[in-house]
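User: My instructor asked us to take a sequence, write out its structure as tokens, and then describe one feature of it. I'm not sure where to start. Here is the sequence I was given:
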Amino acid sequence: MGARTSFGNYYGCVLLVHGEAFDCRLILDGQTLQLGRSYELPVALLNPDLVLPMLKQDTAIALWKEKTIAEGKVMKLLTPV
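Assistant: Let's start with the prediction itself. The structure tokens for your sequence are:
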């Protein structure tokens, strides 16, 4: 088994989209993540009005925390309840 990292209920970092940076929170709900694995996680956007118009399915994204910590793509967009 690989190294495990747990962040609690959420993990705050920067979401990079088309070269622009936005604050976000990955919603983990106590889930333990393994380094080097792929995950599909919900993301809470701190300024959704700014970033949502830039997002659609398959949009390339990166997560930044002093350096790029993950790269991926938008799987689906959820409408807030």
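For the description part of your assignment, you could build on this observation: Strands lie at 4-6, 10-17, 20-27, 32-34, 43-45, 60-64, 68-73. Try explaining in your own words what that tells you about the chain.
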